[in-house]
Amino acid sequence: MATDMLIAANDVSQRLLDITGDALLSGDFDAFASVFHAPQHMATMAGPIYMETTEDMRRAFVEMHNHLRGIGATDTVRKCVVAEYKTPTRIEATHTNEVLRHGTRLSGPYPCFSVLEKIDGNWKVTGSEYALEPNDGQAMAIAYADTKHRNA
Q: Where do the H-state alpha helices sit in the chain?
C-alpha cells in the first residue's frame, strides 16, 4: 500500500476545502490556485464551466469572491462527507457547503462532488460539480466568469 494512502482520503479532502474556503473569503487567489489545477471543469445546474488556464480560474475566483463580499458572507462551512481513494493518486469526494453571515445561513448546505488528483507531488482539485440552481448567486458568479471568457 502506498504511503499516501495511509492518510485518510477524508483528511486530504477536508484540508483542500479549508484552504479554498478561507481563500475565497479573504481574496487570496494564490492560496486558492495552489490546490486547483488548470484545465478545470466545473458544473452547476446552470451547466458546465470550463477553466482552461490560470487566468480563467482567476476570473471565476474573483467573481465568486466578489459575490461572497457582496452578500456579506463572513464564513463558509465546508465539510467532507465521504472521500475515497480510487487510485493512489486520485480521490473522489463529496462535501457540503454553506455560506454564513455572523452565524446566519445565507445559502446551503448544498452537496458537491470533487475529483482530487496528486499532481507533481501535491493534491489538486481537477474537477467539481456543485448542486446549485441556475439562479443561485454562486452559480451565476461562476457562470458569469465563464461567459465573459467565451465572449472575449
A: 9-26, 29-33, 54-70, 137-151
Q: How many domains does the chain have?
A: 1
Q: Are 56 and 50 in contact (CB under 8 A)?
A: yes
d(CA 126, CA 39): 8
21-52 pLDDT, tens digit per residue, is 999 999 999 999 999 999 988 887 777 888 88
Classify residue 78 by burial, with Cβ atoms within 10 Å: 0-12, 13-18, 19+: buried
Q: Work out the number of other CB atoms within 10 angstroms of the CB of residue 2.
A: 11
CB-based burial label for 40 (10 Å; 0-12, 13-18, 19+): buried
* CATH code where residue 107 lies: 3.10.450.50
pTM of the model: 0.85
What 3-state DSSP class applies to 129?
A: strand
